Amino acid sequence: xxxxxxxxxxxxxxxxxxxxxxxxxxxxxxxxxxxxxxxxxxxxxxxxxxxxxxxxxxxxxxxxxxxxxxxxxxxxxxxxxxxxxxxxxxxxxxxxxxxxxxxxxxxxxxxxxxxx
Length: 116
Hints:
Number of domains: 1
Number of helices: 4
Keywords: Membrane, Transmembrane, Transmembrane helix
Membrane topology: Multi-pass membrane protein
GO cellular component, one term: endomembrane system
Subcellular location: Endomembrane system
Main location: membrane
Oligomer: single chain
């Protein structure tokens, strides 16, 4: 609680900073998976399918990182103004891309197991 004469914090729990860090961690995790898929796919899938999935994962990691960085300032301004700061369309696109790439990576892993 704020003492008399002190301004009240608009976000005492640092929600915005935690959300920003979560987007950064998610982007880093996707980028690491892109590197792993790229390295392992050279040995399992010589036709470049795995490299294409790795490239798509790298693009998704970059998009996730960019979204986390670019959304911070508008969300901060919205929180200061006391209005909702949601961007549901961007979240829906990122969720769909992540789901599609999850199925692609799973298919690559299963095809590698079957090929053995």
